[in-house]
Design a protein that fits this description.
Blueprint lengths: L1 H30 L8 H38 L16 H63 L3 H26 L1
Helix pairs in contact: 1-2, 3-4
Length: 186
C-alpha cells in the first residue's frame, strides 16, 4: 500500500509539474499577442510543446490507472502474506551487491584495456603516416630536381652525345638513390 501511495504521489507530482509548465507556456502565448508578428515562430513552438505535454499528461494518467489496477490485484492476492516476510532493505547491502559490482569492474577493465589498445594502434598508424608523408615529400622534391635538370639540358641545347652522357649520369644517380632506398627499407 505504501508503494501504491508513493507511485501515485510521484505521478501526481509529475502531472502537477506538467500542468505548471502548461500554464507557463499558455501565459507566454498570451503575453506574446502584442508582438505577434515577431513571435509567430516561437508561438508555434510553444503550441507544439503544449501538445506534447498534454500527451504526456494523458499517458501518465493512463499509466497511473493501469498500475493502480495491478496494485489492487496484487494486494488482494497477497492479503495473507505478512509484511515481515519480505526484507527489501537487505537487497541493498554489500554482500548482495558485491558480485554485481565485481562484474561491473571486470567489464570496465576490459573496455578500458581495449580502448588503450585502440589508442596505441591509432598512434602507431599516425606515426607511420607521418613517415610516409615525409618520404613522399622527399621523393617529390627529388623528382622536381630531376625534371628541372632535364629541362635545363633541353634549354641549353647540348649536342646529342653530351645529352646521352647526361642522361646516363641521371640514370646512374637515380639507380644509386633506389639502391639507398631499398637498403633502408630492408
Amino acid at each position: 500500500r505504501e508503494k501504491k501511495k508513493k507511485l501515485r504521489n510521484q505521478i501526481k507530482i509529475q502531472i502537477q509539474m506538467i500542468g505548471a509548465k502548461n500554464e507557463a507556456l499558455s501565459s507566454n502565448i498570451i503575453k506574446g499577442d502584442d508582438k505577434q508578428e515577431q513571435n509567430q515562430l516561437s508561438n508555434i513552438q510553444l503550441l507544439n510543446e503544449i501538445k506534447v505535454l498534454k500527451k504526456e499528461v494523458s499517458f501518465l494518467n493512463n499509466l497511473n490507472s493501469r498500475l493502480g489496477k495491478q496494485l489492487k490485484i496484487q494486494l488482494s492476492n497477497n492479503e495473507n502474506i505478512n509484511d515481515m516476510d519480505f526484507n527489501y532493505t537487505r537487497i541493498n547491502e554489500l554482500p548482495y551487491l558485491e558480485q554485481l559490482l565485481m562484474a561491473y569492474d571486470e567489464k570496465i577493465e576490459i573496455i578500458e584495456l581495449s580502448l588503450q589498445n585502440v589508442y596505441e594502434d591509432f598512434r602507431e598508424i599516425q606515426k607511420k603516416s607521418e613517415v610516409i608523408v615525409e618520404e613522399n615529400n622527399y621523393l617529390q622534391d627529388q623528382l622536381k630536381k630531376k625534371c628541372q635538370e632535364i629541362q635545363q639540358l633541353q634549354i641549353d641545347g647540348m649536342p646529342l652525345q653530351n645529352m646521352a652522357l647526361n642522361f646516363q649520369k641521371l640514370e646512374r644517380e637515380d639507380l644509386n638513390e633506389r639502391i639507398i632506398l631499398l637498403t633502408q627499407e630492408n
